[in-house]
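Morning!

As promised:
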Amino acid sequence: MNPLVILVAKALVGGTVVCLFALVGEFLRPRGLAGMFAAAPSVALASLAVTSIATGSGSATSQATAMVAGAAALFVYCLVGIESVKRFGGMTGAIAAMVPWLAVAIGLWAVVLR
Amino acid sequence: MKSPADRPDQEATELDLKKISSVRPRDYAIRFAFGASISAIAGVLTLAFGPRFGGLFLAFPAILPATLTLLEKKDGLAQAAADVRGAVIGSIGLIGFAVVAMSAIPRSPAFGLLAALVTWVAVSLAVYLALRVLARGLGERQYLPEIPTDEASTVIDALRAHRFTIAVAESCTGGTISALLTSVPGAGDVIRGGIVTWNEDTKRDPLGVDPALLAAHGAVSPQVAREMAHRVKALLHADIGFAIVGIEGRPEAGKPPGLTYLALAAPDGRTLLRRHNTDRGAGRNRERDVRSSFDLIRRSLDGEPAR
């Protein structure tokens, strides 16, 4: 399948699944529970599904393996984010916490996955 | 009355379908754009550097900046911070998702993704419930209810429209009402001030409640609430005086938790009283009391001529 078509499919399905999870999170209370949906596997579900259909399970399995490291980095990101959002506000705090995400994700990739 | 609120995350779990009216298509267009972008970026990185690098970005925090910005704008910074606390739990579930997907996709991609999704829900909920039980066990009760500041701004707007000023005397809410009202930009136009009278001494002095009234009816009584509302109105030279007394946590002086009296001294000298007597836990009681206070102040202005 044409890689460009796969990319467009991932983008469309990814955007849609993100909205669906956000919608569920919007109605859930308390906010602490609803926030769970901010770390929902929306992009992962869409990408892995499209990859499995388009190129088979081999590439999807490799991506899922790497995602374990990405998810561990997301955990660190969220821990840092609690403080950085309070200190710098929503947008700046969330972007500032991406530095530790990149450090942990790239570090695990370099040590374990490469 | 010495009953700090529970952590807001310990509130009852519910689906608030009233929120459906607040769903804004523009917010979802932004989320769609972020979701589509990161999905495409992860795809490009997979093509360029292989699936073992591109896969990292399936857990890239691209959605959070958009979500937090929208949430902060709509409901305030406290809600945004609570959302990140929830995201910590979701990210633990996401590790489970990836592990199960990695193991199960080779057998059947459809089954593998379904199993991974179920794992994310199960792990996240288990961690959430475990932390909730742990927090209760540790007696963690120092957090205030997270009420969006835009709820307070409706009170300020109503007062401003009528050109009335208000003074507040709080007991069981410990200053939460004043804190929320004063968090609205420009609230100084209509707020004269507030006093937290946490015990009977401070209700007597500086507020000036008659000691005989306190002795006869107790601090948590409609008589004392009424007196406090009129006293704070006079003391701070406001058009409206508002007061609240109650028991949010443990029973006190034979009175049950959840019992609250709200009183409003109107500009013409009338008193409006409201009573609550259901116990929903300290945190939920306080949240109800603050929201009910806002509602009473707003309703008192309905039909009231502007000054």
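The mean pLDDT of chain B is 86.

Hope this helps with the figure draft.
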